[in-house]
């Protein structure tokens, strides 16, 4: 029986975050090292205890080697499988397999980037276009990734009557959570009207429907649960994971209203032995306002097509029925190119009652869901403070 | 039908496969071709060496009718101009990214019936686009 299907076989110990918003001139390696050091220290471990490392990068295919070298880790297990922004939740699934196979004992998962401080995003984008060409999309000059998500939003609006006001509700709810998070980059007032009136980038998405472009790094350490319990007073158990990817380009996505979360979510729930109504907190990768709507539907929190109505009226906001993106999300907290590592960090803090002003009262279970590419790759994990 | 033009303008990108080169060679003559799997009969686009539906490795080129339906659409608000980017479902089955020309991008709606044509871009390369189908 594999650990991936053995409920609670692995647990998260320490977490760390660094350089969120504006890294203040530090490089991505520097802020990743800072987050990693925090995660290792708050795990109750020393760097010499870390014998596994997992990471991914938008720019470097050798990133795991670079980070292992920089941190001075000679891993028994390493992986930099790139699932786009969902990588750092997909890594939880792979970590479970590695730990169960006893390849290693303590895995550091880390990521960071400094797009806000980067010298030139157009140079990075040109390089990525060479490395990952999309010959049948590029000639039409979509403003990606915004345009791909805009096509999904437009289709959802057409097919289900979802409105721009409902998309805006997602952004407003995230901002309200951000206002409770001292680390959040964007904390000023935001109304539905503000979102609708913001400059349109790629119809129907305005700039406020899009995530931030900011710096940040995150890290966490994961071990087998029986080992974690000895070292950390409050391990956060991984009850179930699910990973799925179906396409790379938006033009190859069969139905723009159904994402691979429809596969990863049910898998994670089945492994956890839970259903959506059992979940106290939801942390979703909100690169764009359409994303939480699609994911809440595909994960089973509401029916397909009803996501727009589900998110309206402040349901996701502080005090709402379902706490979603309690750190402010990629829309308001930070977004350094990829994001799912921050979902894990926030979920762990909530489950440990360490979230300060934004702490949710009932925080026993959390679902974290990462998205990669253009709705291409989805990874879901269900975490709990006890077994 | 677009006039034939110098094929040297359609030099394929560095990473192009044989199927990409065939597609671009047809396009350079003003013709839009896609593949059909000889095993399962389904249309295939973008071009490749294996059928994504059944795994068959025998794919033949054919000229689709050019008729399609806009599946989704967006208007990119560029710095100097706005332009259309859309996904079109060909009547033969495959979906592709393209642009609807000859009308304001904001007037392109999901469900619009369109027909394919090959144009020449400012730098002389052939590009497949769509225009509103005459009713």
Structure description:
The complex is a heterodimer of chains A (387) and B (135). Chain A is of the alpha/beta class and 387 residues long. Chain A contains 13 helices and eleven strands. Chain A has a nine-stranded mixed sheet, with helices on both faces. In chain A, strands 5-6 form a two-stranded antiparallel ribbon. In chain A, strand 5 and strand 6 form a beta hairpin. The longest helix of chain A is centred in the first third of the chain and has 16 residues. Chain A starts with 9 loop residues before the first strand and ends with a strand. The mean pLDDT of chain A is 96. Chain B is mainly beta and 135 residues long. A six-stranded mixed sheet of chain B has the order 6-5-4-8-9-7. The longest helix of chain B is centred in the N-terminal third of the chain and has 11 residues. The N terminus of chain B is likely disordered. Chains A and B meet through helix 5 and strand 5 of A and strand 4, strand 5 and strand 6 of B.
């Amino acid at each position: 029986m594999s650990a991936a299907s053995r409920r609670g076989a692995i647990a998260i110990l320490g977490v760390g975050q660094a350089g969120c918003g504006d890294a203040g001139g530090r490089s991505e390696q520097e802020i990743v090292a800072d987050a990693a050091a925090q995660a290792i220290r708050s795990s109750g471990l020393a760097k010499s205890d870390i014998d596994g490392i997992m990471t991914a990068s938008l720019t470097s295919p050798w990133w795991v080697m670079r980070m292992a070298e920089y941190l001075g880790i000679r891993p028994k297990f390493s992986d930099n499988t790139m699932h786009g922004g969902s990588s750092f939740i997909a890594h939880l699934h792979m970590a479970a397999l590695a730990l169960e196979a006893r390849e290693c004992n303590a895995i550091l998962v880390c990521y960071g980037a400094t797009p806000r401080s980067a010298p030139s995003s157009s140079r990075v984008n040109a390089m990525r276009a060479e490395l990952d060409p999309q010959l049948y999309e590029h000639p039409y000059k979509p403003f990606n990734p915004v345009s791909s998500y805009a096509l999904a939003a437009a289709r959802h609006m057409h097919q289900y009557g979802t409105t721009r006001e409902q998309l805006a509700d997602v952004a407003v709810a995230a901002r309200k959570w951000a206002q409770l998070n001292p680390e959040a980059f964007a904390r000023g007032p935001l109304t539905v009207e503000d979102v609708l009136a913001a400059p349109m980038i790629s119809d129907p998405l305005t700039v406020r429907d899009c995530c931030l472009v900011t710096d940040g790094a995150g890290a966490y350490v994961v071990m087998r649960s029986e080992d974690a319990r000895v070292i950390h007073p409050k391990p956060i158990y991984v009850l179930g994971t699910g990973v799925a990817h179906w396409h790379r380009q938006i033009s190859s996505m069969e139905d723009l209203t159904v994402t691979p979360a429809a596969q990863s979510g049910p898998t994670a729930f089945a492994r956890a032995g839970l259903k959506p109504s059992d979940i106290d907190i939801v942390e979703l990768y909100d690169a764009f306002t359409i994303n939480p709507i699609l994911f809440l539907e595909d994960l089973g929190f509401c029916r397909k097509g009803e996501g727009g109505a589900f998110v309206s009226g402040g349901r996701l906001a502080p005090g709402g029925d379902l706490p979603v993106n309690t750190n402010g999300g990629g829309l308001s907290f930070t977004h350094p190119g990829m994001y799912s590592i921050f979902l894990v960090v926030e979920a762990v803090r909530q489950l440990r009652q360490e979230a300060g002003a934004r702490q949710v009262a009932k925080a026993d279970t959390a679902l974290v869901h990462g998205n990669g590419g253009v709705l291409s790759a989805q990874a879901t994990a269900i975490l709990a403070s006890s077994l | 039908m677009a006039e034939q033009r110098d094929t040297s303008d359609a030099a394929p990108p560095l990473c192009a496969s044989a199927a990409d080169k065939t597609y671009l060679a047809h396009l350079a003559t003003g013709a839009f071709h896609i593949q059909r799997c000889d095993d399962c009969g389904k249309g295939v686009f973008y071009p490749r060496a294996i059928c994504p539906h059944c795994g068959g490795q025998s794919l033949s080129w054919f000229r689709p009718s050019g008729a399609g339906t806009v599946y989704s659409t967006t208007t990119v608000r560029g710095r100097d101009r706005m332009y259309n980017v859309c996904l079109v479902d060909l009547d033969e089955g495959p979906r592709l990214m393209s642009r609807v020309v000859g009308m304001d991008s904001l007037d392109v709606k999901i469900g619009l019936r369109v027909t394919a044509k090959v144009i020449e871009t400012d730098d002389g390369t052939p590009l497949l686009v769509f225009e509103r189908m005459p009713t």
